[in-house]
Amino acid sequence: MKKIAVLPGDGIGPEIMAEAVKVLNALDLPLTLEWADVGGKAYETSGHPLPPATLKLAQEADAVLFGAVGDWKYDKLERSLRPEQAILGLRKALGLFANLRPAICYEQLTHASSLKPELVAGLDILIIRELTGDIYFGQPRGRRTAVDGHFPGADEAFDTMRYSRPEIERITHVAFQAARKRNKRLTSVDKANVLETSQLWKDVVTEVHASYPDVELDHMYVDNAAMQLVKAPKKFDVVVTGNMFGDILSDEAAMLTGSIGMLPSASLDANNKGLYEPSHGSAPDIAGKGIANPLATILSAAMMLKFSLNLPEAAARIEAAVQSVLAEGLRTADIWSEGTSKVSTVEMGDAVVKAITTTKTIKS
Ligand SMILES: NC(=O)c1ccc[n+]([C@@H]2O[C@H](COP(=O)([O-])OP(=O)(O)OC[C@H]3O[C@@H](n4cnc5c(N)ncnc54)[C@H](O)[C@@H]3O)[C@@H](O)[C@H]2O)c1
Ligand SMILES: CC(C)[C@H](C(=O)O)[C@@H](O)C(=O)O
Ligand SMILES: [Mg+2]
């Protein structure tokens, strides 16, 4: 029996997680699910966004299924107590350096994208974001009084962008190996024309390329990459980039697929132990309304079955069920368009479960 830590979190987190759990239960797999509080919810109940019991459960589990954390009402808390520290703390404590964010535009959602249908039809790109380094974790950081610069004596804040060679090497290997299993094209995104961390990034990626001569590599500055993603997204296959650029580009890529509510993610350590979460946040603006799209979380559960639990057939059944509900015309509000049927979060989860059980009946 494999153990899954289920951490719903805040905002729409519990709503979307309930649907993903429903889908997992429908598959009748040898899994034990254990719940724990995380984020703002955990701060309310135990004074910390990532309480020791939650971290312990995540460390002991075979995989973690994560909803989302955060709410504007915590923005005034000291940084170490803010909900977002829970996800950052989990990534760091579990060594989840490789973040895989596939952006697939399902045929039925071609018209839900804000881009012209011909630009996104058939889109299938994979963004690989380094997740435990960069300006997110670099020290020192803080506040101080400026002693130089444009305004000496003024309040100033500073963060440190840093990357070491081994950190870049390991994510680059993940990216080349992923590209090898796909269309054998890798784009490394940096800002080497300005940043020293990016120059090291580019040098190391180029060196590692020597071990993957069958994969075509190109380098692109991040500003141009942001533009190319909306100009000609299908030219990309696999994109590898640092933590900060990857955060921004993956949200941008989400819109190519129709909605951020469609974008799952896997965050993996060196042994493919992982945390699985939708790429979106807690969406406080729509929380409690029953309208959030649960498909990113459901598809994240599928990634969990594939990458950490070695259950690729079960994962494929979820993916097929998602395709089938989209083909039926069912849409949550974020992906709704004229001529399709608008459904709630729960109705979408129910439909995926129904599609799974129907396939089971047909097969047996
Ligand atoms: N990993 C995480 O837990 C995570 C990720 C991103 C943001 N956050 C946090 O979430 C909070 C809100 O941040 P934000 O508004 O910038 O980003 P967000 O991703 O929560 O929301 C951005 C927009 O997308 C919509 N959206 C997001 N998920 C959706 C879904 N499943 N279905 C339909 N619409 C959806 C929201 O309604 C909103 O309009 C903040 O506290 C932020 O720090 C957490
Ligand atoms: C909530 C925040 C810390 C997080 C990030 O910046 O990594 C989120 O935006 C994401 O993309 O998972
Ligand atoms: Mg983000």
Automatic annotation (TrEMBL):
Organism domain of life: Bacteria
Record keyword Zinc-finger present: no
Cofactor note: Binds 1 Mg(2+) or Mn(2+) ion per subunit.
Alphabetized UniProt keyword annotations: Amino-acid biosynthesis, Branched-chain amino acid biosynthesis, Cytoplasm, Leucine biosynthesis, Magnesium, Manganese, Metal-binding, NAD, Oxidoreductase
Any one Gene Ontology BP term: L-leucine biosynthetic process
Residues binding Mg(2+), per UniProt: 223, 247, 251
Keyword set includes Metal-binding: yes
Cofactor: Mg(2+); Mn(2+)
Protein function: Catalyzes the oxidation of 3-carboxy-2-hydroxy-4-methylpentanoate (3-isopropylmalate) to 3-carboxy-4-methyl-2-oxopentanoate. The product decarboxylates to 4-methyl-2 oxopentanoate.
Family recorded in the similarity comment: Belongs to the isocitrate and isopropylmalate dehydrogenases family. LeuB type 1 subfamily.
NCBIfam families: leuB
SUBUNIT field: Homodimer.
Protein's name in the database: 3-isopropylmalate dehydrogenase
Native organism: Pelomonas aquatica
